[in-house]
Each structure stands twice: as structure tokens, then as C-alpha cells.
Design a protein that fits this description.
The protein is of the alpha/beta class. It contains ten helices and 16 strands. The chain has helices at about 40-50, 115-120, 125-135, 155-165, 180-185, 200, 215-220, 240-250, 260-270, 290-295; strands at about 1-5, 15-20, 30-40, 60, 65-70, 85, 100-105, 110, 145-150, 170-175, 190, 205-210, 225-230, 250-255, 280-285, 305-310. The strands form three sheets. Strands 3, 5, 6, 7, 8, 15 and 16 form a seven-stranded mixed sheet that branches. The longest helix is centred in the middle third of the chain and has 14 residues, at about 125-135.
Length: about 325
């Protein structure tokens, strides 16, 4: 099968196409013929620094949308021919930049009929991150005020919609060019972070979702109401930040997304109900993975970038 591999860490140029053996599904696993694979910031970081994957060689990618080709012993959820989407194995290697992947059947869910494979591939990792941050960690309730940084990005644009579906009042930070789109997605307020200091522009909120991290952490705490929560998605919250949060009567913590069939089903329900859209900046052939990474590194992507294998075309 085709796969995009790398034998050293570095820039996008280290990504090369290779031919690898097709994997075989083990007990409780399925073999999925990949139609599309989503690209996420963690892919870029892993390519450059190894991250969870360690040292090369390895195949990047965790977002998958495709068709079940074979099922292993004990699989009851799917049969060959079923269309599925998921985020298998994360943060262990999944190898989604390839023609085939194998993973436990319960790392997948039925692909929403309203999404083609390209849009379905853009949903799992970013969507589960937003869902687990807002629902599992922050437990967002109707009427609460939620501030979402980088609201036009992969996680951000989905978080805006999920928070709105939960009945929250949603505030997003983004460049001015994305404000109209974010209002279409349901944002009640949008702040241009390049022109305005959000810490002085926003009224107190109950929840902050921060995909950026860094120096903004203490400023995020300053806009939380007593009892509020900051969920950091970029890097583990420093102990000093957690201690400062406790003094202020709020909470701060780091969330690392994990495979979650229940979350996938919840996201699919929102899609089917017309309450969740997946925005695609670009869909590019698998062979152009390096170009896709270059685009991702511009920091100007709206929504998601997806790689396509040509399966089914």
C-alpha cells in the first residue's frame, strides 16, 4: 500500500511516499480502506520533533474516514463495506497517511451520511478535542459564557458550534477576516486579537478554551468568574498557573484528547441535526502531504486540511 513516511525529523521535505505492507486486523480490530485523512497541528509537531511518536521511521496521521475492508475476530459493530470515521490509537501511532489502517473497532463510528469522506476526515481529532474540553472537562451548561481562542482554527470552529449547541453564550477570538464566518457558525461575540486585548475587552466568562498556551494563560485566568475553568489544549498547564488559579477560585488544567466512540456518536448526531459543520481549507492528494504541511505551518488555516487517497473515485 502507499504511505507517507519519514526517516528523519525535520521540515515538510522529509515526508516521502513509500510502499509498505498492508496491515492485517487483529482480534476486535477492523481494516479500513482510507478515503481521507485529516491533518492536525500535532502531525506537524510530530514530523518536526517526534513527540509521541519518538524517532522515525513512522507514518503520521490520526484522523480517518474510509470504508471497512476486513474485520477481525470478535468485531460486532461493523461489517465490510461500512463507512466509518474515527481517531484510532491516539496518541500512539495510527498511520493515517496511508491507503489502509487497522485499529480497534470501537475507535470508530459510522460516518454521518450527511458528510463526505473529506469532511468526515476533518472531524474526529479536532471535534473530539472540543467535545471533551467543553462537555467532559468544563461541563458547559445553558446560559454559561464560553471564550474560545483561535476560534477560526480546526478545534476552534468546531468548539464554537458545540458550545452553542449546549446553549452557551459564545465569544471567539480571531482575526477580523474570520469574524463574519464565526458569527455564521453561532458566535455571539468575536474579538480581533490583533487589535484588542481580550483580557480587557471581554466580560467575565465561565469557561475558557485555550488551544494556544504560553503567556496567555494568566490572562485567561483573569477573565474567569469564580468557579470557572480554563482548559488548555496546547501543553500541560504549569504548576504555577494551577496554583494561581486556585488562589483566584478558578480551575486550570490540560486536556489531551483520547479515542472516544461515545464522543464520535455525539458529534455525528450534531452533524445530522444540522448543528455542526466541518470547514475545509483544502483537500489535497496524499502525495502532496509536504505541501499540506507547508500550508498548515502558515498559521492562517480556517478549519481543516485533509489528504485524500483517491479511493472510491
Amino acid at each position: 500500500m502507499r504511505a507517507i513516511t519519514q526517516d528523519r525529523l525535520g521540515g515538510p521535505e522529509v515526508l516521502t511516499e513509500a510502499t509498505l505492507d498492508r496491515p492485517e486486523p487483529g482480534p476486535t480490530e477492523i481494516l479500513v480502506r482510507v478515503h481521507a485523512a485529516g491533518l492536525n497541528p500535532v502531525d506537524v509537531k510530530s514530523r518536526a520533533h517526534g513527540g509521541f511518536l519518538g524517532q522515525p521511521p513512522f507514518v503520521l496521521g490520526w484522523d480517518v474516514s474510509g470504508v471497512v475492508e476486513e474485520v477481525g475476530v470478535g468485531v460486532t459493530l461493523f461489517t465490510p463495506g461500512d463507512e466509518v470515521f474515527g481517531m484510532p490509537w491516539f496518541p500512539r501511532p495510527a498511520g493515517a497517511y496511508a491507503d489502509y489502517v487497522t485499529a480497534p473497532a470501537r475507535h470508530f463510528a459510522a460516518k454521518p451520511a450527511d458528510l463526505d469522506h473529506v469532511h468526515a476526515a476533518g472531524l474526529p481529532l479536532a471535534g473530539l478535542t472540543a467535545w471533551q474540553a467543553l462537555v467532559d472537562r468544563a461541563r458547559v451548561q445553558p446560559g454559561q459564557r464560553v471564550l474560545i481562542h483561535a476560534a477560526g482554527g480546526g478545534v476552534g470552529h468546531l468548539a464554537v458550534q458545540i458550545a452553542k449547541a449546549r446553549g452557551a453564550y459564545v465569544i471567539g477570538t480571531a482575526r477580523a477576516a474570520k469574524h463574519h464566518l464565526l458569527r455564521e457558525l453561532g458566535a455571539d461575540e468575536v474579538i480581533d486579537y490583533t487589535a484588542v486585548d481580550f483580557a480587557g475587552a471581554v466580560e467575565p466568562v465561565d469557561v475558557v478554551i485555550d488551544p494556544i498556551g504560553g503567556a496567555d494563560g494568566p490572562r485567561c485566568l483573569s477573565v474567569l468568574r469564580p468557579g470557572g475553568v480554563l482548559v488548555s489544549l496546547n501543553s500541560p498547564a504549569e504548576q504555577q498557573l494551577a496554583e494561581r488559579a486556585a488562589v483566584l477560585g478558578v480551575r486550570a488544567g490540560f486536556l489531551l484528547v483520547e479515542p472516544d466512540r461515545a464522543g464520535l456518536l455525539a458529534l455525528a448526531e450534531l452533524v445530522t441535526a444540522g448543528r455542526l459543520r466541518v470547514l475545509i481549507e483544502a483537500a489535497m492528494p496524499l502525495a502532496e502531504a509536504a505541501k499540506a504541511h507547508e500550508l498548515s505551518e502558515t498559521g492562517r488555516v480556517t478549519g481543516k486540511i485533509v489528504l485524500t487517497t483517491g479511493a472510491g473515485s
